[in-house]
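Hi R.,

Here's the chain you asked about this morning:
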Amino acid sequence: MAMGELESAVMAQLWDAGRPQTVREVHETLTATRPLAYTTVMTVLDRLAKKDMVSQRRDGRAFQYSPRSTREQLTAELMLDALQDTTDPAARVAALQHFVGRVSPGEAAAIRAALDGTD
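And the predicted structure, written out as tokens:
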């Protein structure tokens, strides 16, 4: 379920908006910082819908798009997908240890609290 840079930008726009967005709304926001064709944004949203990452609902002649999960849920899914790509248990443990070794002290405390069920 990896995402490209433009897919990530579109998802960020949908999360930041806090409400369903049309292709036009996403396009207008994204083109404030970079040139993009309307059809490119439409294709990206269609791809995200096919990946089941956004919901697509018809509103008159246009579709409105909403994220199917929160930013945090998607990040966790991406991390789990990466771990599941490694079938060797020792490599999985090593990857987790490497990850934990690179987090900040605050993030490590959050991980500890989650594991202890005290978050």
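Helices lie at 5-17, 23-30, 38-50, 71-84, 89-102, 105-116.

Let me know if you need anything else.
M.
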